[in-house]
Write a structure and sequence with these properties.
- The protein has nine helices and three strands, in the order αααβββαααααα.
- The protein has a three-stranded antiparallel beta sheet with strand order 1-2-3, with helices on one face.
- By secondary structure, the protein is mainly α.
- The chain is 49% helix and 8% strand.
- The C terminus is likely disordered.
- The chain has two domains: 131 residues, Intergrase catalytic core (hpI Integrase, Chain A), CATH 1.10.443; 34 residues.
- α2 crosses α4 and α2 packs parallel to α6.
Length: 202
């Protein structure tokens, strides 16, 4: 699989994303790029999704990803995170169409080609994008709306550092101290047996 000729200093916007999808008539490529765009999953995580990892919940699709780049002890299962794709968007429609038209079995992968194959057709549709740019773009767009703790869980980062890099410094610091404050109050409450709950200190 190739690497980007030039690492962009901007992000993918929705207009560019939609045009990219229009530039290819390959439904599997459209579906994969839609998943990368909406979830921020790593390409290796998206290509590991099996039929049993997807659930149609009516108003959204639920996709369970194996979270890679995590240290696990021998014998432990790889951690997972579940992300939603909401109904009513062009991306949802593409993914649903792909699932309906493909022979998807529980134990078989949703996408049965290699990353090199998808890279080739993605670059034909838009030479200026690369797999990691989807993840970076979503993290950038989400950083104003999601706190560092949720960002860490969403994107499957091992440490908080990556989330902090995206969130505005002041917002990240405020979130950190707010969490510390809540943790301190909870510990003090436990000491004195006051019956405080997390709901009391939100």
């Amino acid at each position: 699989m190739g690497k980007p000729n030039v690492v962009r200093d901007d992000i993918i916007r929705e207009e560019e994303m939609i045009q990219t999808l229009k530039n290819t008539n390959k439904l599997d490529v459209q579906a994969l790029l839609s998943i990368l765009w909406l979830t921020g999953a790593r390409i290796s995580e998206a290509l590991n999704v099996k039929g049993k990892d997807i659930e149609d919940c009516g108003e959204y699709l639920s996709i369970s990803f194996i979270t890679l780049k995590q240290r696990v002890k021998e014998g432990q299962l790889m951690p997972r995170r579940t992300l939603k794709i909401l109904k009513g968007t062009i991306y949802y429609n593409i993914i649903k169409e792909y699932i309906n038209k493909s022979r998807i079995y529980p134990e078989l992968k949703l996408f049965n080609k290699t990353a090199k194959y998808y890279w080739k057709y993605m670059k034909k549709a838009n030479p200026n994008i690369y797999f990691h740019l989807f993840r970076h773009s979503l993290a950038t767009l989400a950083s104003d709306k999601v706190d560092v703790f949720d960002m860490k869980e969403w994107f499957g980062w091992k440490k908080m550092d990556m989330a902090v890099n995206y969130v505005h410094p002041k917002k990240a610091i405020d979130n950190f101290y707010e969490a510390m404050k809540k943790d301190t109050i909870k510990k003090e409450a436990e000491k004195i047996g006051s019956g405080f709950t997390e709901a009391n200190i939100k």
